[in-house]
Amino acid sequence: AVVYGLGNWVLDVACLAASAAALGVRGVSLPLLLIAYPAGMAASSISLLPGGIGVVDTTMVLAMVAGGVPAAAALPAVLLFRLISLVAVVAAGWLIVAVQARGGRVRSVRSRARARSAGPAGVGGAGSARHRRGTREPPVLGGPADSMTACGLPAGLQPLSRSSCTLRAGGVAPPGPLTSGRCRRV
Q1: In 1, 20, 117, 155, which residue has its Cα 20 to 30 A from 60's Cα atom?
Q2: DSSP structure string for 157-178
Q3: Which of these, 145, 161, 162, lies nearest to 153 by C-alpha position?
Q4: pLDDT, tens only, 128-157
């Protein structure tokens, strides 16, 4: 953790130096950067604003001005650094969250469609699409699984969640490839 934290600080100082170099700021040295950046990070720990917005920027600009850099040159360099190190990182995080949220919805729709196309767990039984849609039709019984469990499911099936009904002794089977709809084979 210490190595990653130190690496983060080194890369942030390099980003601040690159921002100053990109804007042609003269008088920025490594010792000045090693004073301005930690001063800004210390100020962020006292700030009540998210990311230390305003407080960190002001502290870094003041530290650079105290080190001999003109304020008119230090301000754009610090703002570019903060744009890259704070705003771009937050925007990338929101983008990732949006993509994952959209992907999750697509997967859940696909998995529901897959469960419907997989067919009934028993012939017209509780795992069938007709029963899952809530038509309240009793499951069609027949074949070797014609007895009912405490939940009203054909024998050999159990609910996926405990909130569905009272489980019979033996509990819920672990998830597996035979899962269909809201029930799974045991």
Answers
A1: 1
A2: EEESSTTSSPPPTT-PPPP-TT
A3: 145
A4: 444 455 555 454 444 444 444 545 555 666
